[in-house]
Amino acid sequence: MSQICCKCGKSEEEEKIVDGFCLSCYKAEFPLITSFYEKKFNLTACKLCGDLMFHSKWHEVHDDPKETVLKILNEFLKKTKKETDAKVVLIEDFEEPSFDVASKQNLKILFEGTTNEQVPPYQQETNLDFIVNIGVCERCAKFTRGYFESIVQVRSDRRIINNDEQLMITKLVQEMKDKRAETGDRMAYITKVVDQSKGGVDLYVGHEKFAKIIAASLADNLAASTEYSTKLKSHKDGKPIYQSSYCIRLPYFEISDVVSYLKNNYQIVGIRQGRAALMHLKTRELKTLAAKESHPDYLKVLKKKDQLKKFIIVALQSPNVSVMNEVTFETIDIDDSAIFKDHKDGDEILMVELPDGLFECKKI
Ligand SMILES: [Zn+2]
Ligand SMILES: [Zn+2]
Q1: What confidence tens digit (pLDDT) does each residue in 287-335 have?
Q2: Pairwise CA distance, residues 136 & 51, whole Å
Q3: Most buried one in 47, 91, 153, 359, CB count within 10 A?
Q4: Residue 39, exposed/middle/buried by CB under 10 A (0-12, 13-18, 19+)?
Q5: Picking from 127-131, 238-242, 353-357, which range would have the lowest pLDDT averaged per residue?
Q6: CA 181 distance to own-chain centroid
Q7: What is the pLDDT of residue 83?
Q8: Percent of the chain with pLDDT over 70
Q9: Predicted local confidence at residue 13, as pLDDT
Q10: CB atoms closer than 10 angstroms to residue 21
Q11: Ligand 2 center to 188 CA (angstroms)
Q12: Which ligand approaches the C-alpha of residue 144 most closely?
């Protein structure tokens, strides 16, 4: 006996009948999804930074807010009960949510799959309300209140912080901020920078962990030492709240200074990643110290860079050379091994005066 669809009366000859329904009626009778994980897709946007919150978790928005919405929506759809093999095949384009005013729009989502192996896959279009409320994320709330957990202080020993170091500090801090942001560390912010005008910089940092990273990186890159201290700031819900500080102390020596290292005299020609590069004043040999040795315990300053003196080469007569002090006009004859090769009469050179004589230094 021929079967007919119990809903529309179509016969088996007209369309395949499965479980008493023709295929067209079957789709309507057995939807792929009956309800979403939640009736509405609710997000909160931070009016200050534009980040989005779903179920009390904040998601970072980078260049494209829609991309973040889709990422969260997929999480939402994953939690939606579906027939086993039904999957989302299309999410129709939608409006970019506003961060200034609450908004509501309708998302159209297309699912595909089947609930019965005798029925070929079919599609189901569903509508989902997408609501965006406006708020302020905790980070922006803390940031605007000036909240910080830690202070990183950069100081220098008996000297001002030089321009290269200033630039290095700014560059390193920016790099670390970007790197932390990539890992989704939302508290990696600096709420305030107090420039002590060459006497140092104070960075007020959002959270302890980030302060620690900044401190370590500055110390490593600037051959500095670090002191850590902590003090009780307040109590919250009976718990003590501590405020930590890191003092990064830049060494007395800096690039261009003349130092003694293991009883030999050198000029510091560079400091990179906390390692001092030295030039031997007599042999001109270059060497780079390990970070551990690029430290005031090993490097004693003999002359600061501003104590180096300018001379003019008056007469080169190997093995001697006459040089004239640019300030006192005093002329001295010295061994020409004290100056670099390839000089000619009239050249201006930089020299350091040490107990064992004059030695040319690099102009850095
Ligand atoms: Zn039917
Ligand atoms: Zn925010």
Answers
A1: 999 999 999 999 999 999 999 999 999 999 989 999 999 999 999 999 9
A2: 9
A3: 359
A4: exposed
A5: 238-242
A6: 6
A7: 62
A8: 99
A9: 87
A10: 23
A11: 13
A12: 2
Structure confidence at residue 351 (pLDDT): 97
Residue 131 belongs to some domain of the structure: yes
Band (pLDDT 50/70/90 cuts) for residue 282 is: very high
Q: Are residues 262 and 323 in the same domain?
A: no
User: Which of these three, 84, 109, 137, is where a domain ends?
Assistant: 137
What's the gap in Å between 83 CA and the centre of ligand 1? 21
> Quick one: 200 and 178 in the same domain?
yes
Query: What domain count does the chain have?
Result: 4
- Judgement on whether residues 73 and 169 belong to the same structural domain of the protein: no
Shared domain check, 161 and 215:
yes
Q: What are the pLDDT digits (tens) for 101-129?
A: 999 999 999 989 888 888 888 888 999 99
CA of residue 104 to ligand 2 center, whole Å: 21
333 near 341, Cβ under 8 Å?
Answer: no
Q: Which numbered ligand comes closest to the C-alpha of 137?
A: 2
Nearest ligand to the CA of 9 is: 1
pLDDT tens-digit series, residues 66-109: 999 999 999 888 888 766 678 888 988 899 988 889 999 999 99
Residue 19 lies in a domain: no
Using the mean position of ligand 2's atoms as its centre, give its distance from the Cα of residue 102 in Å: 16
Q: Is 3 among the domain residues?
A: no
Domain that holds residue 290: 257-306
